[in-house]
Amino acid sequence: xxxxRAVVEIPKGSNRRIHLSYDGTDxxxxxxxxxxxxxxxxxMPVCYGYIENTINDVEKxxxxxxxxxxxxYKTKDKIDIKIIGMLNREDGDxxxxxxxxxxxxNDFDDIKQVERNLxxxxxxxxxxxxxxxxxIAAMEYxxxxxxxx
Length: 149
What we know:
- The protein is of the alpha+beta class.
- The protein has two helices and eight strands, in the order βββββββαβα.
- The mean pLDDT is 95.
């Protein structure tokens, strides 16, 4: 199975919008999440970042990933991840769903209902989630998003 590595932009529990600068040189703080997403008082419910060496053709930015973990991470941390699915959004800014080795789930449906609902509300706030893909479809999307060098 292909290995993927994520880079944390916003740690779980943070209320700050952190993003890799568009020139890729550093991370920038874009302010309070609550200014953009009031759900959960603007607090990130999972680790959020991007998958290295990928590009979302619609956004022209790295492919986003939400990571379920029992560990604490900081901005810039790199994590080996297992892909379990993908949130397909109306605006094309899809979110890969992944876990690290501290969480033993294989599918989005394995996550507690309350947590799933929060994720759907949070990441569907700015653009409607139109479907939730399984691991195979998410891997196909990721494989088509790898930057060719």
